């Protein structure tokens, strides 16, 4: 989650600072400016990053919140596909892995490795 959140933060910063770097599509259904998409990714990335640190810290609530946030991040990156396809596909894969890892957590008995 920390890696996915950090990458979303970088994606947001890149969209806010250099919105001429990305491809703009003329007839895309979700017509936000690239700066708006940048802020969406930046805020979502910060929240995912913080939830990742809470998960490492042992917070039980962070697992459920992480699944929800990774799902939102996955949706945001799916909608981001026309602007930067490679980056969006990589982050979609990372979000799917995060959801899988959080849902398939194993319970270990004491003394097992």
Rg: 16 Å
Q: Flag low-confidence runs.
A: none
> For the residues shown, what is the average pLDDT?
83
Largest beta-sheet details: none
What is the CA–CA distance across the termini?
A: 23 Å
The helix-and-strand class reads mainly alpha
What proportion of the residues form beta strands (DSSP E)?
under 5%
- The helicity comes to 55-70%
Protein model, in words:
With 113 residues, the chain is mostly helical. Helices cover 68% and strands 0% of the residues. It is built from four helices and no strands. The chain has helices at 2-17, 34-56, 61-79, 85-103. Helix 1 (2-17) runs antiparallel to helix 2 (34-56) and helix 3 packs antiparallel against helix 4.
Overview in brief:
The protein has 113 residues and is an all-alpha fold. It is 68% helix and 0% strand. The chain is elongated, with a radius of gyration of 16 Å.
Feature tags:
mainly alpha; 4 helices; 113 residues
What's the layout of helices and strands?
Layout: H1 2-17, H2 34-56, H3 61-79, H4 85-103
Helix pairs in contact: 1-2, 1-4, 2-3, 3-4
């Amino acid at each position: 989650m920390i890696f996915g959140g950090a990458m979303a933060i970088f994606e947001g910063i890149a969209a806010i600072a250099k919105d001429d770097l990305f491809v703009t599509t003329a007839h895309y259904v979700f017509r936000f400016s690239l700066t708006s998409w940048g802020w969406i990714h930046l805020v979502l990335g910060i929240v995912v990053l913080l939830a990742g640190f809470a998960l490492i810290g042992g917070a039980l609530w962070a697992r459920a919140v992480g699944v929800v946030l990774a799902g939102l991040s996955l949706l945001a990156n799916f909608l981001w596909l026309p602007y930067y396809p490679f980056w969006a596909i990589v982050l979609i894969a990372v979000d799917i892995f995060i959801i899988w890892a959080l849902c398939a957590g194993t319970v270990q008995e004491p003394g097992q490795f």
